[in-house]
Q: What sequence folds into this?
């Protein structure tokens, strides 16, 4: 693709300042081996689809591996090649703290918020972003994990006014499906270290 590492690499200056743990030479290597080939495939897919609809790309990985950083880099690259994009996280779609407390009253095992996402709202948001027309707006929730003494809460909404060619949606459990064979929960998985934890996993699986 038409990317000059000498002239064009400056589009990442803000990211390198914001994230000093990223080494410029390593980023150049990643651009060559991963990002640019991936971008090329995305743009080819967009052209092949020949549709005004945005393309949703799910990014699933555990916490702390760089999903957000990857989204920032892809956004810069796509803009460089004339395409718009938006990066969202499943964290945006946790239920509000008030609803979380109501859920805990029904089942105190929801001491953590990990599996308490507003899935209908997430699906609606993604569908609206995908089919968004010029002049339309989409309201996306803003979630702050630090409020409510670290319990987290929805603190408002951000308004998306620009249609995007690509919508990146990341999370630690995207694509997770129900296990029909629940014996998997009895195989000594590290997080399932007690009968109570095993039962909770089985209940969530339903």
A:
């Amino acid at each position: 693709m038409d990317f000059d590492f000498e002239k064009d690499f400056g589009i990442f200056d803000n990211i390198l300042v914001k994230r000093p743990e990223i080494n410029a030479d390593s980023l150049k290597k990643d651009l060559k081996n991963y990002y640019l080939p991936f971008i090329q495939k995305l743009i080819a897919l967009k052209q092949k689809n020949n549709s005004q609809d945005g393309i949703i790309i799910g990014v699933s990985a555990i916490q702390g591996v760089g999903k957000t950083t990857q989204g920032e880099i892809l956004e810069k690259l796509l803009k460089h090649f004339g395409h718009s994009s938006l990066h969202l996280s499943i964290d945006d779609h946790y239920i509000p703290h008030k609803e979380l407390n109501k859920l805990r009253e029904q089942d105190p095992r929801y001491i953590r918020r990990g599996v308490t996402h507003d899935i209908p709202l997430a699906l609606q948001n993604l569908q609206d972003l995908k089919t968004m027309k010029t002049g339309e707006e989409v309201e996306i929730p803003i979630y702050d994990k630090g409020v409510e003494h670290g319990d987290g809460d929805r603190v408002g909404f951000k308004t998306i006014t620009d249609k995007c060619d690509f919508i990146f949606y990341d999370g630690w459990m995207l694509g997770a499906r129900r296990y029909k064979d629940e014996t998997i929960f009895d195989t000594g998985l590290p997080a399932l270290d007690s009968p109570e934890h095993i039962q909770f996993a089985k209940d969530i699986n339903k």
Observations:
- The longest strand covers residues 153-160.
- The radius of gyration is 20 Å.
- The longest helix spans residues 24-49.
